[in-house]
Design a protein that fits this description.
alpha+beta; 4-stranded mixed β-sheet; two-stranded antiparallel ribbon; 3 helices
């Protein structure tokens, strides 16, 4: 199964580490440093040029690629509903 993050981007459910709200989670210094270091390491994929609402951290299986952070214009609620997660 795959999660559609917006535009033409999909990721396998098994690679998703977490789905985070951009507004509330970037208040913390650790999260800001994580996103800055991911960006510096060229691990960030911006799914849309619209206002970002969420970011999704993905870790492929060992040997199948590098960790990625996807910035999405979709809300965490929408993404979680698509993945059938309940808060």
């Amino acid at each position: 199964m795959y999660l559609h993050l917006g535009q033409k981007t999909v990721v396998p459910f098994g690679e998703i580490v977490g789905i985070f709200d951009m507004e509330t989670s970037t208040v913390g210094e650790i999260t800001r440093k994580f996103l800055a270091s991911a960006s510096a390491a060229d691990m960030v994929v911006n799914v849309s040029m619209e206002m970002p609402k969420a970011f999704v951290v993905c870790q492929p299986k060992k040997g199948e690629g590098e960790q990625r952070v996807y910035i999405s214009q979709l809300s965490t609620t929408t993404l979680k509903k698509r993945k059938n997660l309940w808060i």
